[in-house]
Amino acid sequence: MLRVDGLCVSYGDAVALTDVTLAVGDGELLAVIGPNGAGKTTLVNALARLLPIRGGSIRLMGEDVGRLSPRDLAERGVALIPEGRRLFAGMSVEENLEMGCYRKSVRRSREEGLRRVYEIFPILAQRRRQIAGTLSGGQQQMVAIARALMARPKLLLIDEPSLGLAPIIINEVFETIARIHAGGVSILLIEQNASRALEIAQRACVLDCGRLVASGAPAQLQADGEIVAAYLGH
Amino acid sequence: MSATLFGQSVLSGLFSGCLYGLLGLGLTLSWRFLRIINLAHFGLIFLAAYLTYHFVQSRGVSPLLAGAGLVPLFFGLGVAQQWLFIRFRVSELPSVIVTFGLTIIIEALIQWIWSADFVRLETHLVRGSLKIGSLLAPWDELIMGGFAVASCVAVWAYLNFTWAGKALRASLDDPDIAAAFGVPNRRLALVVSGAAAAFAAMGGVFVALLYTLTPSQIYSWLGVVIAVVLLGGLGRPLGVLAAGLLVGVAEAVTMALVEPAWAPIAPFSLLIAVLVLWPERI
Amino acid sequence: MAAGGASIATTLAAKYSTLLWLAAALVLFAALPLAHPPLFFESFLYLIFFWIALATSWAILSGFTGYVSFGHGAFYGVGMYAMADLGPRLPLPVALLAGGALAALLGICIGAVVFRVRRLRGELFALLTLALAIVLATIVLNTPIDGGPGVFLSDVRPPKIYSNASSTIYLAGASVAIASLAVAWLIQRSKFGRGLFAISDDEDVAEILGVPTFASKLAAIAISSFIAGVIGAVHAVFVSYVTVGETFSISVPLFVLMMSVLGGARRWWGPAIGAILVTTLSYSFVSGDFALAARALIGLTLVLASLFLPEGVAGLVEKARRAWRPTAASQAPAAEPRIAALRPDPARLDTKTPALLEARNVRLAFRGVQALDGVDLIIRQGEILGLVGPNGSGKSTLINVLSGLYKADSGQVILEGRDLSLTPGHLRARLGVARTFQIPRPFARQSVLDNAMIPAMFGASALDSAAARKGAMEALRFVGLAERADAMPAMLNLHQRKFLELARALASDAKLIMLDEVLAGLTPREIADAVDMVRRIHARGATILFVEHNMRAVLELTDRLIVMNRGRLIADGPPHDVVRDPAVVAAYLGAPHAEG
């Protein structure tokens, strides 16, 4: 589904990512964990084409997408759930969801999309006309996830879904992600809460200081004492 | 003062208010969605007014036809202007200076072609007035009022009920994420600028029909329309109409009850009050 | 003895040489009428002086502080009409000063109301001033001040100094222009002026570094409007017939804006250059047809200048100066020894250590979200207190409230026993409270050294220019930025900009330094440097509030750790105990913390 080779990204003269190589298989859930400031969000933003890449390649289903605009990437079935939710704060819940299926090829599925999403998140149905900026953190996260689902994505990029949320809400969020994955969507999950991420991932990578320092199945990583000490105990 | 006279003042205030709303519509859209304060809007209004005068008075073209020709032309001008602004990354404060410079150039151009003499379009769209009780409403003003209300409502509907309108609002809240969901930010910006200029053209046609023209008039409208835009809340098509009506009536009543020369006090005092007491509103 | 006196005189002369040149220029221009030049020449020069005075006075407010005003015509108009009214009754110099005083009064009244409202900056301030000028014009037009027909100043007779009465006005114009340049020069190089430039770059940061922003802006508008009033009064006598239309026409504020933009609004000589250029240009096209072309050219100049030359001619000169001047020699930073990782002795700091800063039941809500929900916190003298918590827990908001950037809805903040509730940000800086920003906010248009000088001059130590420069250089040396003292902040990388934030906190000689995620975005090597820096700052005697996500650094550095979640504290105690607290684990850490 997604293949990243030797990705290099920098902000001006500050190098953020060096030589990152990873892959997300069809229908797979890959978790990327690592400490704060490791470059995880930079990775997601580069993949979502919100940042330019200095070197390396990104291939989506075989096609080189490294130079595309975010819009063109969206047309190819990639949806983003950004860090900090980033809803359209001045618009209502339903309008936010509608923006999810803005791209031409899925616009027609608006009605059906809304129905499905309200099934998964009944709270949103109740609050469909509420202004998104006035929702609680957990509710906003639901909207962000639902918005991405409206785009009928083949690949979901999820950036730090648990950030700033109470532990109880985090449970719900991860359950939802697992359910979406079960529905056949490929997922790249960025998360600083390593243990929760490893619970639902099929494979994982560890990013530190802009570099990939380890990758493998969750069980493998959890067995490695060094990695546990350095990254899994915060 | 008799009730009829007072009523006629209010009616006249409503009409001038409608025109303020129409003139402010383009300005409020570009101010909120493009984040520029486009003083050149006024230059464009008057350019359209003078072109209308020229084609109607000298070539005998009907005002509506002139309008129909000017609107797409000005749409193009608006697109070109925004393209330049994007290219030079002009932000809010510099935009005031740059667009003011453009207005000066347009004013000089107008004066060069048509001189500084007062000119008045003799043609009407429809002659005569409608009698409403004891009040008289000139047909031209009614048509202008209708256009103004229709435009504001149409823009409001567009922003709230169409895909493009929602995309525009999303683009304002978070342009990067909007792009990630397929919103063409740049194209929308060009369209907004073109539409604003198109509304300027429409306004200009009515200014030519209803008022005497002279180049320096550009500046007398500038202050009032900006006051109306700010009072109505940026980017609110219904707000700018409501504020226009409020200001128009306030002005007309002031002129009727006190002396005409006191007229500017109304809109500007209102504006100062709103800016100082409720700055969050803007 | 004589030699000593002579050397003092020469030093003073060098320091104030600009003023001496200006005085010489005034003498030269004053002597001109004695040579009986053609009358139009005197008039032309007078007009140049008029615009120099008006544009320079505008720049003192709008160029230096960044509060662009479109209402300068109001102050100038007050001066014009004051002369029209008082001129026949008072001696000329008194009438001139009265015009200035009345204009200054208007300016202060406007400033007192408008400068308190945070939202009224930038373009809203510009439009508000425009609206005020229009209201004033309407009032003047409709009251006996003018009433409509205009006012003739035939009864105003200027004293005869030269053979020609009009030359007196020429002299008055020249004097006001040169005086305004002198004032602008004095302001630009003074502490007051530095404060104004800081306000222009980032007013909120200036306030918490100790610049008294409200008072400074008020002073600026007072000086600006005073000069405008005086030159307005002079101009009234020059034109001898004052009308509302001409006086309050929109051309005046716009020409003044344009001249300053063209010449450079942040330099004392910028508006003067613009005034000379534009006036000369306008008068080269005297005949009718060309007048229009001149106007169009002026419009074109405005457009091109703001697109390509945002800093005006002065900006070009600055760039050239930068390119030419060799980098100023600065001493190589003395290698500071790395302080060994001392385990802080918990027994040393206990509940008997006096509290430096206390927060009691502080509450603050934003748009329906309770950001601070009853925060009770004590920071003890001399400790390094760590503060952690999930994003959105209120850590930055708390720092904003403690430093005075935000006002709490309720609760108290007490510094060394003194209630700070009514104390504005700049006074808290004076009392020794400093903070850094998570995303660095340097003053973008000032050099690294200038950035560090602001807190040195306005902070707890309140030094004069020379001492502040020394203090700032010392702070820069401490953080290792001494070699970049002349660089602009845009040329620094993130690590260096964060250290500039630290240097600013140091230069203010603060007792309490609040560090807001100073390690965010740094590489491990840079983090080690930063942690060492914080230790050394602490060793110099500062109390530190250390807000962070990096738990390793927090455990290494801090004496005590508090944890925030959803706007309130959920833990407070020795770091290693706190990280094992189940509530903390559940809310923030997510997994039992590794032993260590």
Structure in words:
The complex is a heterotrimer of chains A (234), B (282) and C (596). By secondary structure, chain A is of the alpha/beta class. Chain A has helices spanning 40-47, 70-75, 93-100, 104-107, 110-120, 122-126, 137-150, 167-182, 194-200, 218-223, 225-232, and strands at 2-11, 14-24, 29-33, 55-60, 63-64, 78-81, 155-159, 186-190, 203-208, 211-216. Chain A has 2 domains: 1-77 and 156-234, P-loop containing nucleotide triphosphate hydrolases (Rossmann fold), CATH 3.40.50; 81-152, no CATH class. In chain A, helix 3 (93-100) runs parallel beside helix 7. A two-stranded antiparallel sheet of chain B has the order 1-2. The radius of gyration of chain B is 19 Å and the shape is globular. With 596 residues, chain C is an alpha/beta fold. Helix content of chain C is 57%, strand content 11%. Chain C contains 24 helices and 12 strands. Chain C has helices at residues 2-15, 17-31, 39-65, 72-86, 92-114, 122-142, 165-188, 191-201, 203-208, 213-239, 244-247, 251-263, 270-284, 288-308, 312-324, 395-403, 425-430, 448-458, 465-479, 494-507, 524-539, 551-557, 575-578, 582-589; strands at residues 151-152, 241-242, 355-366, 369-380, 384-388, 410-415, 418-419, 433-435, 512-516, 543-547, 560-565, 568-573. In chain C, the strands form 3 sheets. In chain C, strands 8-9-10-5-11-12 form a 6-stranded mixed β-sheet, with helices on both faces. The longest helix of chain C is centred in the N-terminal third of the chain and has 27 residues, at 39-65. The model of chain C is unreliable at 328-347 and 591-596 (pLDDT under 50). The chains are: A alpha/beta (234), B mainly alpha (282), C alpha/beta (596). Chain B binds chain C through residues 37, 88, 90, 92-94, 96-98, 100-105, 107-109, 111-112, 219, 222-223, 226-227, 230, 259, 261-265, 268-269, 271-272, 275-276, 279-280, 282, and chain C through 68, 113-114, 117-120, 122-124, 126-128, 130-132, 134-135, 137-139, 141-142, 148, 250, 254, 257-258, 261, 292-293, 295-296, 298-303, 306-307, 310.
